[in-house]
Design a protein that fits this description.
The structure is a single chain. This protein has a two-stranded antiparallel sheet with strand order 1-2. A two-stranded antiparallel sheet has the order 3-4. The chain is mainly alpha-helical. Helix content is 81%, strand content 3%. 28% of the residues are buried. It is globular, with a radius of gyration of 25 Å.
């Protein structure tokens, strides 16, 4: 029995490593995850090898280089091209937003490169709990769901890299000066770091959503006796019939699902409400300021006929990439939210279908647990909701701020003429 349990744990552990490998490897090369990181690399043999020391030195040198360039280039460009900066009358609103964006970006990069990339506690936290849930609840077909998740992550990475290459090409073709190459280098480094940061988040939340869906399928199986897979909605639906009578084993299964769901809830709470959530707030705020600055520049540049089509295309592509990253954060939380709402509906049906006091006690605890999570689980550091309401808030905020800034920028010349 002990041997079978060990083999089962090793199987799910390796399956989870394969699912997360793409995000972790990219994050390690982009200096947003520690290296070596167990279980993706075996720490003791790596520490005894020269390759470990070489890679570690290379990563530290790369982190120091990116940190130094990011910190020095804005000041260097300002002093070297002060005449060009003063030659054009840049609106104060754009200057203030640009300075605030640069300050937040430098602060975030400094923290990630100097502190966060060496933290292993976050990765140990979610990995141990996911392995525990898989060991006690993993189904035989879980590998297909995780393989589909891995495929979606690859597609998302390819799409992000295509957008990055398009913007990169437009920036390089437009200007071949050294100052522009430095700016392009900063853009490429920060965008790759943001992509790896996002990929970590989506992978972990995708695995949590897969497990929650399988738990809900089991609850439907207990409630209705059979479950059919619905390819149209990428989920399952029950073949409705009269609820079956619950046995002692059914009650124990519901309690087991509740305890395992608690581990998944802890992962979401720890990610959104912990150190990652604080970094996520700064990333969202920086992206919001960037979108305001970029769209206002587009409006004024097109109005003054100062932008060519390649500049307009590069700015629109870059804005779409930034906005798309915020959308995928919201979708990741929405997927988990949908599964919890589905589970809550099933729990109410279980509660009303049974006359057992023990079943009522179990479902009451389960309902309370799920309700509390839905109320507070999808907030970054208990400050910003990162479900689909985030998109509506961003669009509304961008519209309001841009309308005010455009009115000020259009009204200023008429005041000067008077």
């Amino acid at each position: 029995m002990h041997r079978l349990r060990t083999e089962k744990c090793a199987y799910f552990r390796n399956l989870l490593v394969d699912t997360c490998r793409l995000a972790i490897r990219l994050s390690q090369w982009c200096c947003t995850a520690p290296y070596p990181l167990d279980p993706y690399q075996r720490i003791k043999p790596y520490r005894q090898s020269k390759s470990f020391q070489t890679i570690n030195i290379l990563r530290r040198f790369l982190a120091a280089l990116v940190f130094g360039i990011t910190l020095s280039v804005p000041f260097l460009l300002y002093f070297l091209k002060a005449d060009r900066v003063n030659a054009f009358k840049i609106p104060l609103s754009i200057r203030l937003m640009f300075y605030l964006q640069a300050l937040l970006q430098m602060g975030t990069l400094s923290y990630v490169l100097l502190v966060y990339q060496f933290r292993t506690s976050f990765h140990r936290f979610y990995f141990d709990r996911l392995v525990c849930v898989l060991e006690h609840f993993g189904r035989r077909d879980i590998d297909k769901s995780l393989s589909a998740l891995q495929t979606n992550m690859c597609r998302l990475l390819i799409a992000s890299l295509v957008f990055v290459i398009l913007v990169f090409s437009a920036l390089v073709v437009r200007d071949h000066s050294w100052s522009n190459l430095l700016k392009v280098g900063i853009y490429l480094a920060t965008q790759l770091m943001a992509t790896s940061f996002t990929l970590q988040y989506l992978t972990v939340f995708g695995i949590v959503a897969v497990l929650l869906r399988q738990m809900n399928d089991t609850l439907e199986l207990i409630l209705y006796g059979t479950v059919a897979y619905d390819e149209g909605t990428n989920g399952s639906h029950s073949r409705l019939r009269k609820p079956v009578r619950f046995t002692r084993d059914d009650e124990q299964t519901i309690e087991k699902i509740r305890l395992l769901q608690l581990k998944l809830v802890q992962i979401v709470f720890h990610t959104n409400g912990g150190e990652y959530g604080l970094l996520l707030i700064v990333v969202l705020l920086t992206t919001f300021i960037f979108l305001n600055t970029e769209l206002l520049q587009l409006y004024q540049g097109i109005k003054a006929s100062a932008f060519t089509f390649d500049v307009i295309g590069a700015k629109l592509t870059n804005s779409a990439l930034k906005f798309g990253m915020m959308v995928v954060y919201a979708i990741a939380n929405r997927t988990i939210q949908t599964q919890n709402l589905r589970g809550l509906k099933l729990l109410f049906q279980l509660h009303s279908s049974s006359s057992s006091s023990r079943c009522h006690e179990i479902t009451n605890r389960f309902i309370t647990q799920t309700t509390l999570f839905l109320a507070n689980g999808h907030e970054a550091y208990s400050m910003i909701s990162i479900d689909m309401t985030l998109i509506l808030s961003i669009v509304a905020g961008l519209t309001n701020i841009l309308v005010v800034l455009v009115q000020f920028s259009d009204g200023k010349p008429s005041c000067n003429q008077l």
